[in-house]
Every structure is written in C-alpha cells, then in structure tokens.
Inverse folding.
C-alpha cells in the first residue's frame, strides 16, 4: 500500500438525494499516469473536487499518500497541484508576474518560476501579457502554476478541452514527461478515449457516477482486440479441439468464435482441424476499435 497515492473507498456524493458519484473505488499508484475517463456528466469533476477537498463526500473514505484526507487536509494538499477546468490568470500581467503572485502565496523560492516555465516550454514567453497567449499556452501556464509548489501529485481536469490539434499535442507531450522527469504522479480526466490512450498507463472508466472499468491500457486493448470466426463442417467437434489446444472459444449461429490470437496459433489450429477431417469454409477476423469498446462499456453515452 505504500506505493498507493490515491485510494478511495465506497465514495458517495449526493445532491438533493441524487447520487453524482456512488460507490467509487479509485486506486492510483505512485509514478503512473492515470486516465480518468467517462462521458460528460459522468461524475469526473465531482470526484476531482472531492479529492482536492473542495467539496465533502456524503460518505466514503479518501486516502492520499496513505493518509485520510479529512483529518490531514492541509498536510496532503501541500503536495498536490491541480488544474480544474480553465486556468485562472490576470490577462494584463505577464506569465512571470502571474506566477510570481502565486509564488508569494506558496512561499517557494523565486528560482522556481524559471524552473516551471522551462518544464512547460514557456521560457522566452514569460514577459508577454497572458491575454496574447494562445489557448494551449494559457493551459500550459495553468499547469506551470500547478507545478510551482513542487507537487508529488498533479490532478488535471480535462486539460485538452477546447484546444486545437497542436495545443492538444503540446499538453499531451508535457503530461507524458512529468512522471519520468519530475517524479510526479498524474491523474488526468477526459471524455476522449483517444487522448487517454496516448497518455495513460492505467485507466478508470466512470459511468453515471460508478466505476465500470479500472485496469491497464494494455489490458483494455486486449479486451477490445476482437475475435476470430471459423465456419467449419462440424462446429461442435471443432470446438472441442480448440478447447483442447487452449484456444477457448464458443459457438454462435453454427460458427466457431475464438479469441484473437497470433497467426501461428491460427495456422496450427486450422492444420489440426483439417487433419481431423473438418472442412474449413471460412476464417474471418473481427476487430473492435477501442472507441467501440468504450461506448459498449459506458452504454453509448453519459447521463
């Protein structure tokens, strides 16, 4: 448990008797990028606000860095940086002056401003008024502000929302560097599977306030990998052969349906079936995209 950065137990948040988050069990390990994924309105921002102590859960438990949030709020939040929705800034001030205002509140050394500007690739832009920044630059400035206090945990709520492709690429590249270069654990929320897939190592999918999937991206890709369909002369007997060879499978409408496997394993199975006297009429591969799998998991949309 010492490597667990965030753990929630049966987290519940109700508004006027309606559960925005219910029975949520998050588990986020040190040094990983955790993608918090779900349709708009699924409960992602409500969960993040509870993790940051901005709203109180109706019931349940939140532990961050192995300590209960309610009893150790200030001690924990000193080690947490966050960007929830749009960053706050003074448009008429420069990036440096905006960060200086936050630095004084945090009480960190002045040298930290140059450090975070370099991390987010805004070195050379620090004297420009922020009102002249692109949306992507403003978002990177918001992340710089979140990094000023040298956090161990960074929580980002929809950081690529509204950005153009270039801005999305900039934020994605920045987030991917943080664990390796800065030793920071990152929780990043999004409603876009394509974004999470390119950044995170672990994903939690939330639907109508409930966790419906939590595992590695690699395992998610395996589950969405698709299947093989074999049209054979004696499907019942062919299924027994497939099971005996460790291929698994089932019968659907007279066809043998198998999990996706390597070409070599398919070749060996087909060879054995032919040697047993089966006629192989057709071998087809059915692929399911991750987006299709995601829509299947979340039921086609949010609340």
């Amino acid at each position: 448990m010492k490597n667990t950065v965030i753990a929630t137990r049966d987290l519940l948040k109700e508004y006027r008797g309606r559960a925005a988050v219910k029975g949520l069990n998050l588990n986020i390990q040190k040094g990983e990028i955790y993608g918090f994924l779900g349709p708009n309105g699924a409960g992602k921002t409500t969960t993040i606000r509870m993790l940051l102590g901005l709203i109180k859960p109706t019931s349940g438990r939140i532990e961050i860095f192995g300590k209960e949030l309610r009893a150790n709020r200030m001690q924990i939040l000193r080690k947490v940086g966050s960007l929830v929705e749009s960053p706050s800034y003074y448009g008429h001030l420069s990036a440096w002056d905006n960060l200086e205002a936050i630095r004084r509140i945090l009480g960190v050394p002045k040298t930290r401003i140059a450090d975070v500007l370099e991390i987010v690739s805004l070195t050379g832009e620090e004297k420009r008024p922020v009102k002249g920044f692109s949306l992507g630059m403003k978002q990177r400035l918001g992340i710089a502000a979140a990094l000023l206090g040298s956090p161990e945990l960074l929580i980002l709520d929809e950081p690529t929302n509204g950005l153009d492709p270039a801005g999305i690429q900039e934020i994605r590249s920045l987030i991917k560097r943080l664990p390796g270069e800065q030793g920071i654990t990152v929780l990043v929320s999004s409603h876009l599977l394509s974004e999470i897939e390119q950044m995170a190592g672990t994903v939690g999918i939330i639907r109508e306030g409930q966790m419906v999937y939590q595992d590695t991206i690699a395992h998610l890709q395996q589950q969405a990998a698709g299947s093989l369909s074999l049209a054979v002369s004696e499907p019942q007997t062919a299924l027994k052969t497939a099971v005996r060879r460790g291929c698994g499978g089932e019968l659907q409408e007279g066809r043998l349906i198998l999990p996706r496997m390597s070409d070599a394993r398919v070749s060996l199975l087909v060879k054995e079936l032919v040697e047993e006297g089966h006629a192989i009429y057709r071998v087809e591969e059915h692929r399911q995209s991750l987006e299709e799998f995601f829509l299947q998991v979340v039921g086609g949309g949010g609340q």
The two ends are 34 Å apart (CA to CA). The longest helix spans residues 165-182. The longest strand covers residues 4-15. The chain has a mean pLDDT of 91.
